[in-house]
Design a protein that fits this description.
heterodimer; A: about 400 residues; alpha+beta; Butyryl-Coa Dehydrogenase, subunit A, domain 1; Butyryl-CoA Dehydrogenase, subunit A, domain 2; Butyryl-CoA Dehydrogenase, subunit A, domain 3; 4-stranded mixed sheet; globular; B: about 280 residues; mainly alpha; de novo design (two linked rop proteins); Four Helix Bundle (Hemerythrin (Met), subunit A); 2 domains; two-stranded antiparallel ribbon; about 5% strand
Amino acid sequence: MTVDAQEIRQQARDIAARVEVAEPEQRSRTFFDGLRASRIPYLPCELQEEAGELYVRCYESLFTLGRTSIPLAVGFTMHLYNLSALATLPVPAVPEFERRRQILVDTVRKYKSIMAISSFGENVKHKDDPSRNVIVTEQKAGSYLCQGRKGFQSMASEADILLFNGQFGEHQGMFYTNIKNQPALVLGPSLFAGAMAPSDTRPVEFRDLVIKQKNVLSLHNDLTDHISFYATAWFEALCTAVYLGGASRALEEVRLFARSVHTEEGHMLAEVDGFMVDSGRLALRLRSSLAMARSFGVCADLYCRLIREGAPAEKVNPVANDLMDCGSCLKYALTAAASDIVAGARALIGTRGMSVKHPMYAINEQICFGSMHPTLSSRLERSFGTEMLGEKPYTGLFEWALG
Amino acid sequence: MAADYLSSLISSLGGEQEGPDPNRLEGLAQMLRAEDPDARDYLPRMRARIQEALRDRQGSYEARRDSLSAEVAALIERNLGACQVLEQTLDGLIEEITPEARDIFERAASEFLETSDQLAGMAASGTPLCPRCGSQGVENLCPACELDRLIPDPEIAHMEYNRAVVGEEFLAVYQAYAEVVEGQAGLEPLMQALQSLEFSLLEAQALAEQAAEDSPPHQKLLDVINEAVEGVNRLHAVQENRLTRELHQGWVQVFNAAAVVPQLLAVPEEFQPEVEAEAEELEE
């Protein structure tokens, strides 16, 4: 199955253009109505066996949408990364999961649904505080009761289906449910004010939500971790598209500024060598980041192909590890790059970029969220440091790509 | 809704026959014009029919007049006005047949039939109408009512109510379906309910397929599930084809499977509240 890249590109541009001119209170509606009418949310359903192509199309779409609205595009990333992970990850050893994920993928496409995911519990809490993760207990065969709370859920009001994990005995399980008109799921107030408010991120209380066997994707740590790690890698890679989109928009604002402002000598700022060099440094950073971003799709494609072909574990596992690292590296480097680019753009434009109505004003506030997404940079630094300083010689090479 | 009014209107009009038919307004008017003495015998019966029709339609209209579009309301009021004139004129004609009363009767009958044809034409035109206000337009959603415009089903002649104990997901689909038909809600809640049901049906379908290979009872069950899935597909397709007829027939297919499918889902009865749903089954 192939998709017309130009068609997808144009759809993303059209949505971005409509959001750009929409009244502030209509932007979210315009964004999601446009998306649901497009093929973009359902690309994972169309490209199930082409993880590389899927990644590229998703990345470009999110980049384009991120240029217009970082918070809306970040919210939508939750849908794309989850669905991409579920659609492309084969788990032939667990046919029940295979069946249910396929049903989910097919019906998401048929009903033009949007999926949200609840955060994996409360990562930051006092050591004495009890876990407030969702607890899932089996009531009778095939029926489960879910109680607890999730701290962060984007697109809370827009999503149709909620994917969530929960503690099931000694294991982490993975489940889904319809979220709209679901009285057992109670959304809290929006967590972010200001420029990130449109991400519609809220806590969600599970008040005796009853789900059925059909809603269970996993009841065991092994499978849940397998899916979660893979999905997290997709998230880490894809979320960078949004923030680089924001950085790209900041550079466009620099261009507009540089071509509208003249020096006292009458030179257009865009022709002043120093300004040109400073701008070029930022553009190089953006282009380098985008070049780097491509790597995840290649690795994901390889990984999924190896599993589909039934490759032995000794061949699959190193690629799986590299895929996780690839996502982490992209998230670590590219969200930092996006932040640096915006800081550079802010310095070039100066105070007029701090006007509330100037696009730079919101971008300044939003761009710092990139590095705060999981996996946190400090955690990555510790993990990579531990590996580098371990007993085995360290090269850092991705052998599937450059070996 | 206008459809109730329209359906009763359509069903009340009979077919053509040779010579003036005194059971029809045009036939009776022709007989009066020809001063046929037999016409007098048919006047009380026609008055009774007109009175009954007026009472039914007026009641139906009063209940919904506030929600109807101005265009549809005006048309129905013209129709009801003609009906009232017919009733009054028939009263007079029963007492005495005068040329003036006969002329008024002919004009009122003409007005009644013309507006009836227009209303029937709306119902059968194939143009999506708002199920609440009856408005037409290029948008799928009626801007005033925010309901999905649907193509009415002029074939509905009789509704038969069947009862069955069904699972909560079937009931949710029925409730959402009924709200669409009654002009109380759009298609979106129906699609949500359908998606939830489809998750269950596809799960059941997969299990039944596994079991059906060597088991005729499971094969039968699989057939029922497939029927329900087809019904779901028909209901889902209404988003595109806008056909109320498909809504009804899709629901009938789903309902027919509703009593059988939950048995396969391995859901304990404690968690599957037994509820009664009424299925509107079309007599075809």
